[in-house]
Specification:
It is a single chain. The protein is mostly helical and 203 residues long. Helix content is 36%, strand content 3%. The radius of gyration is 42 Å and the shape is globular.
Length: 203
């Protein structure tokens, strides 16, 4: 009888040790792949899931209602279309004019600019733009520079409008032209046409 009790106790102890060892191995943090599947990070490949699988949630595969690929703002109705809400495309009532009067075309501005270019009464010196720039003189057109650029005479980087006003104040001894005036636009238009004439002659 005592022998049976000892054998049963030994067997129980052996089973207990075996169970503990197995539990220890099963919960071993150093072996995550030995855990049960529902807690096993090795079996939780996101691309193996269904409901929460990011691999199955390609936005381009979703229904059109929620598909960002079909929500091109330029395809939306005009009411909500930012492409149709360009403030620069407003009607005449929304426009604010920069000056009184306008040129109907580029050539009209060039013609007005040519008259100013040759006008010796623009300043007090008795000079005109043509006095210094006859036959493309002193304009450095051959450098093919676009404004703004550095101008040695000014000692600064200037725009075309600023260069025109520098000449108005200094060689011409006159007054600056208003930036938004028709005169400034005409001068700029003639300068461009004059440069195009030079480049055409160069070919």
């Amino acid at each position: 009888m005592i022998k049976k009790i000892i054998m049963i106790a030994g067997l129980s102890l052996a089973l207990g040790m075996s169970t503990s060892a197995s539990a220890g191995d099963w919960a071993n943090p150093c072996n995550p792949c030995a855990m049960k599947k529902n807690h096993n990070p090795c079996s939780m490949n996101p691309c193996d899931m269904k409901k929460h699988n990011p691999c199955n949630m390609n936005p381009c595969d979703m229904k059109k209602k929620h598909n960002p690929c079909s929500m091109n703002p330029c395809d939306m109705k005009k009411k909500h279309n930012p492409c149709a809400m360009n403030p620069c495309a407003g009607g005449d009532e929304a426009k604010k004019k920069i000056r009184d009067g306008s040129f109907k075309n580029f050539q009209a501005a060039v013609s007005a600019g040519k008259k100013l270019w040759e006008d010796e009464t623009l300043g007090k010196s008795g000079n005109s733009c043509l006095s210094c720039h006859s036959d493309f003189s002193l304009l450095n057109f051959e450098k093919r520079q676009n404004f703004p650029h550095y101008v040695e005479m000014v000692g600064d980087v200037v725009s075309l409008d600023q260069m025109i006003n520098y000449c108005m104040l200094n060689p011409m001894e006159g007054e600056q032209l208003a930036p938004n005036s028709k005169e400034m636009t005409a001068m700029g238009a003639y300068y461009r046409a004059y440069r195009m004439q030079f480049l055409k002659a160069e070919k």
